[in-house]
Amino acid sequence: MIVITFGIVIALAAAARSTWSPCGLSMLSQITPMAEAGRGHKFASTARWFVVGATLGGITLGCAIAFGAFAIGNAHVSTNDAVALTAGLALTGAAVDAHLFGFGPPFLRRQVNQDWLSNYRSWVYGGGFGWQIGVGLTTYVMTAAVPLMIAVGALTGNPLAAAAIGTLFGLARGLAVLLGGRVRTPAALIAFHRRFEALGEPVRQAVIAIQLAVAVIAALIVAPLIVSAIVGIVAVALFVWSGARDRDAEIALQLRAVPK
Length: 260
Prior knowledge:
Blueprint: H1 2-18, H2 22-30, H3 33-38, H4 43-74, H5 79-97, H6 116-119, H7 122-135, H8 145-155, H9 159-175, H10 186-222, H11 225-257
């Protein structure tokens, strides 16, 4: 049960961070009451299809994860081993998101085809875009929490739970389209994106913190006290380093923007 809980938490964190992808931002610009009215469509209908498509995408991903869970279950991996692996993978995922190794997201730099908006009916682009975003691996991958979710879902050893974790991810990604439900004027769209962009870095840091918290809690459950303490120290150090690195990058960007 504890691995399933970890999978649920990671799925929600991965879905939240994924909204700040170019595709996610595009959807929040292109599927709004204002944009849909301009195309002669109703936002409620398109958004409904988008959520349905994203949920189906999550189910597709969940079925793939379920195969991994079936294999893990048949391999008789113990709960302690699964929790220990979760701790190591979560710590690694946080390190990747923090660019500790010199690389990190975004991965798979692919966007949905914007031509669909003018060439197809709203249920086609709504459902089609939703599926691509909900499946999680066909467009920009903004966080290592996405592959971490897949791995942890498989480590549950429970195909039904694994499928549910993927479905939850897709549903959460789809529901993000409702954030733009009050955008009815160009000024409102600009204000919305200004607020949304300001939240991008805090959300990224929060997802790193969630992965680190999963690593520490998992270590506390299965590892000796000294090992758990080391994992906790590493987690705190990594989070502090990530925050300092981002502040330095922001300062450097501001300095470059100063007229000479």
